[in-house]
Amino acid sequence: MEIKAAVLSGLKEEFKVREVQLDNELQSNEVLVKIAGSGICHTDLAVRDGFLPFPTPSILGHEGSGIVEKIGSAVSKVQIGDHVVMAPASCGSCEPCRSGHPSYCVNFLPLNFGPGRVDGSCPYHDHTGQNVNGMFFGQSSFATYSLVAESGVVKVTKDVPIELLGPLGCGIQTGAGSVLNILKPNPGESIIIFGVGSVGLSGIMAAKAAGCTTIIAVDLYESRLEMAMELGATHIINAKNEKAADVVLKRIMPGGVHYAFDTTGINSVIVDALSSLRSLGKLALVIVAGDKLDIDNMVLMGKSIHYSIEGDSVPDVFIPKLINMYQAGIFPFDKLVKYYDLDEINQAIHDAEKGTTIKAILKM
Q1: Which CATH number is 172-309 given?
Q2: pLDDT tens across 5-23, in order?
Q3: Using an 8 Å Cβ cutoff, are 29 and 150 in contact?
Q4: CATH of domain 2-169+332-363
Q5: pLDDT tens sequence across 15-67
Q6: What separation in angstroms does the CA of 93 have from each of 99, 131, 136, 223?
């Protein structure tokens, strides 16, 4: 079948929207999803710029949502017409998967960064019959249709606009899950969050929902700090002007905060986050931007560091939970979103990189 997709032809190039052929002969465990919307995530841009491996030409995108159009013979999880969010691929059979931690699947890299199916076949082709690498994060959602394994789709309610929900599959569940599933704050406790883009702001909303009474947002941009206040932050710090740990320890919480969450991956910021913690405090990280994490020689006093992938969530459980929170008015992630047409993908990326858009969603 002929679909429309934003194709990356080479590293550091712009995406070009083209007609692509997608095999519509599904394997027994596959689901064909008509994409309604796909969020743009920094991981897509890291692949574009060569920081993460995925061969070109390729179809990226891994925050997709849509409607089931066709199912393989063995699929029982969803039916045609169901609304679904697509989550990262996992094998379902390794120890982390079986113990409820699919984000740490031992096969995570080949399943999410392998340029095709597990059996080596590629269902995407250009007009000459040459492969267009796909199945990125098990979905390649920068397209009008996506082919995904049954395990990678999460059935969701039809009461919420389906085009809104794609980012719950990656960036938003990463931010919320890092707080709710990894740090697990108790009501009345304190947290500081460094970097309040879509991941950090999702952490802010999750911290408020968890009952944190001191929620500190740190960023370089006043507009994002203002958004953090709107979504639940009780204090803001512009790191252009002050070192966050100094502000925390001198003016906000002299003993340090219970929890910290860093979304920047910058060593100096991570050290600042550690310095903001009280004894036995916990820090969650989503990325380390350099080759290694350098921590200053400090007495950690029982402090711990946790590396978060996808918020350590079980998507089939956590994504519907976030939707329920949204419907209850305690997780208003729609305030982060700006929609773009698929043809506007490069403008959407420009706006996201410039910081004028927090979470861009391509609406098909």
Answers
A1: 3.40.50.720
A2: 999 999 999 999 999 999 9
A3: yes
A4: 3.90.180.10
A5: 999 999 999 899 999 999 999 999 999 999 999 999 999 999 999 999 999 99
A6: 10, 29, 20, 44
